[in-house]
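ok trying this again, last paste got cut off
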Amino acid sequence: MRKWVTRLAGVSLLAVLVWVGWPVTAKRQSVEQGGAATAVVEFERSGANYKGFERGEALITVEELSDRIRTDASNLVMLAVVDPLSYRAGHIPGSINVWRPDYEPAEGGRYPFDGMMVNRDEFQELARNLGIDNDSEIVVYDDRYDATRVWWAFYLYGKTDVRVLDGGYAAWRAAGHDTDMSLTRGRADRRGDFVAEPARQGWKANMDDVWRAQTSEDVQLWDTREPDEWSGATTVGNARRGGRIPWANFQSWREYRVAIDDDPTGFKTAPEIQAVIDEFGMSPDKDQIFYCQSGVRTTTAIFTLYLMGWDPDRLHNYDGSWLEWSYNEDNPVTVGG
């Protein structure tokens, strides 16, 4: 399986252009350097759809975000979906830190495991504390893969125009834009009035949906974790058992990403994603259910297929994911390669 990494160093000036805001499509060919396959990238100016995506407007480039900050940021809310320590060490000026405990119920309360998404009222309160209104322009970014989790949460509760920064904080730094350090997590200068809608039907899958995938030819179930998690060689966090759901297909979240300074925060182009879809035999006419450890890495796949124009009603995030499945001892588990 091919793994492409775009390097932002040396003579790779053209590779840098895509991360500093030039809308492009890419042509790639593989060359050998020191025994490793490296992507040689030739960029062209794109048409209306960024990177060839049908819904490319759901991504924003670092240059577009920088211009937006300089011209008029009055309605802009930037959320840094990173660990608070990372945020304090460096972040995009004006962004506010939000992290998993902010939008997950406390373990041992409503659920006996962690990682679930908060309910409608709790999410609405969080958004208002972040200064968000219904018409706010929200940009989320990260330093790994959590931004799409927050994009998914806003979509779950009715705000479908949130944008994800392509390349994340790594791309912002690589473009030479200013960064800030802070002793706090940032805060809004006013309370917002965002009104969350009832949770979007089917956007969040449950265990019954996963069981349905065992026998239905109209459902494809995907495990988006790392290979060692899939095989059961590694058990992460508070999971009760190692292994995988027996009827799941393996597809790492990394299939959809490219790395910037070793951070997998960029998204491949639409032609590259179509190659992934073809390789794995994914069908837009079938329901797609994704799970990982706690419904975070799954959202990389969901967001990317959304970019491709897939019907959101066919895309489902198993929110409980492996934490819930492994907790219930009656659920079967498969281990091994």
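PB: full thing came through this time. DSSP finds twelve helices and 14 strands in the chain.
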